[in-house]
Amino acid sequence: MATQGSEIGRIVSAVKARFTAVTYSISTRSARHRKRAVLTQQHRLHFDLLCKAMDDPALAAVLDTYETDVPPEKQRQYLFANALYINALHFHRIGALSREELYGHLRIICQNKLFREYWEATRHHRKSLPETSEEFALGRMTDDLIQELADTDTDEWWVVGRPPDDPSS
């Protein structure tokens, strides 16, 4: 009888442990889903605001925080470059792009002279980011990539640089 009691205790204990693990797994998935949903909503809002600023020079003037005078047409181009960059970051943040895939995408974007001008014009914006933040690390990765592309002597830009290791893997 005592043996049956201890065996039942082990079974109950195992069932409780399994139940706890399943509950944790479901709540973790749910939290990730909520985080992705919030990031996607924030991304939509940011993109809507950028589109309004690109369409209306009076609104674009609110975003003019460059250290030099930027003509309205160039500012619209910078806002679009920002939208491209933020879009790539968003896909990385929600898990649709690995860091290596993000790096490949940025390698393409960084081929564009206007994007590189935008990146340089907004350098001071990134100085306020905490060095421990993911956005700081991705900005540094983009800085390094642009420098590597500038320093290369090959026309095969698609082989320039090596993506950093993905810290989440």
CA(first)-CA(last) distance: 50 Å
Rounded to an integer, what's the Rg over CA atoms?
A: 24 Å
Identify the overall geometry: elongated
Proportion of beta-strand residues: under 5%
H and E string: HHHHHHH
Overview of the molecule:
By secondary structure, the chain is mostly helical. The chain contains seven helices and no strands. The chain has helices at 2-55, 57-60, 72-93, 99-109, 113-121, 123-126, 134-151. Helix 1 (2-55) runs antiparallel to helix 3, helix 3 (72-93) runs antiparallel to helix 4 and helix 3 (72-93) packs across helix 5. The longest helix has 54 residues, at 2-55. The chain is elongated and about 85 Å long. The model has no long low-confidence stretch (mean pLDDT 83).
Short descriptors:
0% strand, mainly alpha, single chain, 169 residues
Write the layout of secondary structure elements.
Layout (H helix, E strand, L loop, with lengths): L1 H54 L1 H4 L11 H22 L5 H11 L3 H9 L1 H4 L7 H18 L18
Helix pairs in contact: 1-3, 3-4, 3-5
How would you sum up this structure in a few lines?
With about 170 residues, this protein is mainly α. It contains 7 helices and no strands. It has helices spanning about 1-55, 55-60, 70-95, 100-110, 115-120, 125, 135-150.
